[in-house]
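Handout, section 4.2: multi-component inputs.
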Amino acid sequence: MQIKHVSLPILFLILFVNSTFSQDRIEKWDVFEITLKGPSSGNPFVGTTLTGRFSNGDKVYEQDGYYDGNGVYKIRFMPDKEGTWTYLTSSNKRELENNKGSFECTSPSAKNHGPVKVRGSYHFQYEDGTPYYPFGTTIYEWPFQDAQTKARTVATLKSSPFNKVRFLAVPPYKDRYVEGPLKITVFPFEGTSRENWDFSRFNPEYFKNLDECMRKLRDLGVEADLILFRPYDKGKWGFDMAGQEVNRRFAQYMVARYAAFRNVWWSLANENSFIRNMNDNDWDELFQLVQQKDPYQHLRSIHNADRIYDYTKPWVTHVSYQYYNVVKAPFGTAILRDIYKKPVVNDEINYEGNIDSRWGQLSGEEMTFRFWNAIIGGGYATHGESYQASPWISNGGRLTGSSPARIAFLRKIVESNPVGGLEPIDHYYENNMAGKAGDYYLIYFGKDKMNRWDFVLPKRELATGVKFKADIIDTWNMTVTPLNKVFEVVPMPGNRYKFIDKNKSSIKMPGKPYMALRIRKIEDGAKVKDDGRHELE
Amino acid sequence: MQIKHVSLPILFLILFVNSTFSQDRIEKWDVFEITLKGPSSGNPFVGTTLTGRFSNGDKVYEQDGYYDGNGVYKIRFMPDKEGTWTYLTSSNKRELENNKGSFECTSPSAKNHGPVKVRGSYHFQYEDGTPYYPFGTTIYEWPFQDAQTKARTVATLKSSPFNKVRFLAVPPYKDRYVEGPLKITVFPFEGTSRENWDFSRFNPEYFKNLDECMRKLRDLGVEADLILFRPYDKGKWGFDMAGQEVNRRFAQYMVARYAAFRNVWWSLANENSFIRNMNDNDWDELFQLVQQKDPYQHLRSIHNADRIYDYTKPWVTHVSYQYYNVVKAPFGTAILRDIYKKPVVNDEINYEGNIDSRWGQLSGEEMTFRFWNAIIGGGYATHGESYQASPWISNGGRLTGSSPARIAFLRKIVESNPVGGLEPIDHYYENNMAGKAGDYYLIYFGKDKMNRWDFVLPKRELATGVKFKADIIDTWNMTVTPLNKVFEVVPMPGNRYKFIDKNKSSIKMPGKPYMALRIRKIEDGAKVKDDGRHELE
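Output:
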């Protein structure tokens, strides 16, 4: 968040009322922040309430504040409407009560499209209506690395295809986090070890680091899939055994502090069922707490391990899955859509890499294949990379795998489609086709080595005489080869489900794996030149 | 139901109290039936209540009776405990009230294992503990055919592998059901056409026919997967548009009449979402009604069309799915198990046949393949046959396809396994293996044409030195070829997940599709003769 301009009289006015500090102008969907001085005695993390009521016409939000240590309290607010907002604080502490103010919300800058929401049943868009297609990556511990590594991670992301990062709010237990110089930023609670944690007090230095990481991602235009809870404690710190009261307090603090970031997504947990002392009722409760406390209703999900959470529950906005088989064929993702009736993000599909653990041994080809399967199934996938020499999924740094370039290529194809979110077509029978029936077909052949593809489409939305053009896509070599040929469809004789090209055309394919076709309707009046080349047989 | 023996004094006594007629001895899980004379004026189907309270020690059941026309009321009860049962009726009609009696429940005969229940999370067993592995078939309209066809269906079932039949309580609209000589048995309601249905009165002739069909299946040892509601009305009869009040009354009557049959399963609907004027709340309500009214808690599910019901709901005992892709690979069924945490029966996987509709065009090979995939995925499947010359799925009669023999072969393999319900093994990574880790592995290669299989097993439950024997199974040609060789496992060098044979053995495979392997632990002391034949390389 940038403080753009603070005029002196307003600053004076605010300071006069209390030790408030805030901006007077902010663009839509940025963070407006109020700073208040208040009591520092006792334990302000527990028992002190602070809420801002923000109004602009018929828009009214209640946004909780949080204690930031040293007698400093803050309220962060994300205005989602242009014009004048006024606010008034309430608190159970006199010093924090009844602070008033106003600010101007200006139009968003070019790259600010607002938070991501669900579009329709199965896809996403930014709040300004721009489609958002998640192409995520996983960098679990990136906030807890040294400054140089973090800077390198940010630079890598900038030129990567990834527009969502999954990461842990609390790192896994590792000796270096206890012993290293960065330990002050690693623990959300006061203390340094299991012996002296104070789970009732948060560690402001930890959160300041996390603030900075959230801002960095936001400035890159990258969504932060922020994972609130995780196992991986190895019995060392006790963070996964702190009990539901601590869990509630932590979740509530996180929401108070980060909900105003337009790029936040709430991932309740990574591999939730590996936290053996928490059951689904506990997760339900935390979901509902986040749902209740987040004024902007950012996306909410949870990432499973060996007991799959019920993603049909109403507080879950989308499916965040770890189930590798789902992406071994396009129909897996399509089944999940039909079961959950929500967007499906395959957030863990194994990682490209060469480590001993089999979850980190995918080839670049296999990772790319799984991404394509997720897309053709009408959903999405998340990347990760685990080469021995470069543990991106843990620390970030540099990407060395071969899949990111192919994922970038796929993202371009997906984002350039003219029909919006890709829907599986005729998917109870066909398993390799997504797009929009009648208009746009992306057909993926996976590991099949096709020598030709007969021009046959499912009949839905087709009529005799509709014309199509086609491109051959090599998903691995990243080429798109347009065919200079027009296909005109007629019903397939003897088959009530299909249309074919009226000349019974086939498309010659190169007999290699990982090929796809893109077939697009030609609008009336548009022309495709047929130069007689022999791509067809 | 057979009346085994009615002694005259008891008969007299019962007749004296009211016009009651019932048996004095009945075997466990058979139908004990009380017949009462009562009012026939007005509409006894609506507003007359009749319930029997049956007690035997600490077992007490409330079983609703039903009106059977002509002033006759019945209560059917399924005793599930041997010994003396007493009963007492209550009613809002004086003539039906306060009927008392008792009978002896004797031990079940050899083929009577009781109703089928869920065993553990994913499998089934009869109430006496005998495992039940569903190998179902579909004969939607068999109760509504002429006597000869019905007899032929029963004879066919007798020598078939099928131990469950899915069929409709109400047939689809067809002209012949309106016009034919059998129409009296076709409609559950009084009337003959849309113009004169009385949805408040049931048609006893229809139900007497259904009674007989239920008995026939029970006597065969075949479970009746009785489908209460269906679309397929084509706007002709209005049975699918009668409204929820009629639906409730019909469901309640069906439960009162058939719950005492040990072989009944409640299938709330076929293709439920094609009944466009019913939503999931309606289905929830009907499920709960059946759950509340069935004293014996027979299995309950619903068969989906294009909107998948939420099978996690507590009143659903198992998954009854129509989603063909699920059975195109073993992992589909395994995913459903992990999502729903209930037994998965793929109740419609397309049908073997040659009709124009693509849902009825499977080869016998493909049907068999899909059955194996369901089993290897840790679930079950249901057969159907739709040859133009022999519409088994509609009418029954004779089976002409090639899959039933292979399904019989599969059933034998499944039923002879020593470990109970087959569980997918290492199924997040492996997709072709089910059984019980450490003891029993059924490995299915589907369409892969393997020339050899390296002896490699997932490490779970294995230890160095454990010995195994193996059989090659040709699932299409129905042969089991034991290998005269002992495999002794050791950890696989360089792989933390696998064990291999200590001699790095492979098994030579015939390079054909539809092959499987069965690998069984050799208990200490057991021996397998190695005659040096060259099945191994």
